[in-house]
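In this supplementary section we document a worked example of the pipeline. Step one takes a protein sequence of length 205 as its only input; no multiple sequence alignment statistics are reported here. Step two produces a three-dimensional model, which step three serialises into structure tokens for compact storage. The input and output of this example are shown verbatim.
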Amino acid sequence: MPDLGSLTAVAVYAVVCGLVFAECGLLIGFLLPGDTVLFAAGLLAAHPASDVSVAALAPGAFVAAVLGEALGYAVGRRLGRPLVERRAGRFLNPANLERAERFYERYGWVALVAARFIPWVRTLAPLLAGAARMPARRFWTANLAGALVWAAGLIVLGYYAAEIPALRRISLAVAALFVGWSAVEATLRWRASRHQAGRTANARR
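The serialised model returned by step three reads:
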């Protein structure tokens, strides 16, 4: 995770917005710690010695999240499921891609909002929504709502958590839970990918 405390205010805005955009709109988002960066940026904005303004940071992250997801949706809508399968296959095994697709198909509009809080799903969800030709109006309302509660919401949560001890403890506990869950998920995905690669190699012999 970037050391936000060592950066100037302008650099913090650029790093946070850039990471949010990449995680929501580019497939390299699988590798980025968006939740942690957003919460940490909120904590930094609350520090008395910091020049970072939450009034600039939260709207900036919101816009970056909206634009990133819009890019993913446009790419998925234009190039379809084959691109999603081909690109996602570099980072996820087929089973996880199918899980993400089932999650989207089952919950639709709600899935795009909820997916913001699931690291690897939030990168795939807009691509899948575009490939499935989700109506633009439904997509945009879900996109705006998700960006508000995730990008701006986590920054504001971090900002107030710095001032309220009880909220800070709860937030850190939840963050630790999410980090642990993400680590377990990453390990399981890696093991499943290796297993799948081994089965494919054996089948070719």
